[in-house]
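Reviewer 2 asked us to include a model.

Predict the structure of this chain.
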Amino acid sequence: AADKIRLIPQDFFAELCEQIIQHLNHKIPGINTAELCQRIQTSGVDINIGDLAKIANSLSFLFSTAAKNNLSTEELVTTLGSGISTLPKHALQVIRHVWNEQGKAIAVAEDAGDMATVGQFVDMKWKLGVAMSSDTCRSLKYPYVTVTLTVADPSGQITDKSFEMTIPQFKNFFRQFKEMASVLETV
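Predicted model (C-alpha cells):
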C-alpha cells in the first residue's frame, strides 16, 4: 500500500483521510472511492479503484486501531515511521495533521460502541420503464421498475446495487415498506 500511496497527490490523500475520519465518527455513511479514484485519475495519476479501496481500508484500520489504543499524535507517527515499508513524507504529514486535529473525536466515537457490521443504507433511486420489443418478441409492452440502492459496507466503501422488478413484485416490495413504516410508527 505504501507504494501506491506515493502515487497519490497530497491533497487527494488528505481528502481521503478526512473522509475516513468522518466515516469513523459516523458523520458520513462511507467513502466514495469510485468518485475519488476518478478525480485522481483525471489529475494524471495511474491508480485503480481496487488499489484505492485497499489504501482506504488500511487507513481506516490504522485510525480505528490508533483510537482504540488511545495513541497520541507522536506515538502514531513514530509507529508509522518505524514500519518495514515506511510511508512517504507527505503521507506522514497528512496523517499527523488529521490525527492531531480529529484523533480525539474518533477515540470518543469508538468508546461509544461500534456500529453494526452489516453496512448502511445511503440512498435509493428508482425508475419505471417499459420494454417495447426484443429480437425474439415484436410487441412486449412489458413494464418494469429498476431500483438502485446505494449502500456503504462496514469498511465505508460506497457501492450501488441495482435490480429490476415486475409490477407485481414492485407492489409486494411497496407493501412490505408500508408494513415496516407502520411498525416503526409504533416504536
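Strands lie at 120-131, 142-152, 158-166. Residues 109-116 have pLDDT under 50 and may be disordered. We have added this to the supplementary material.
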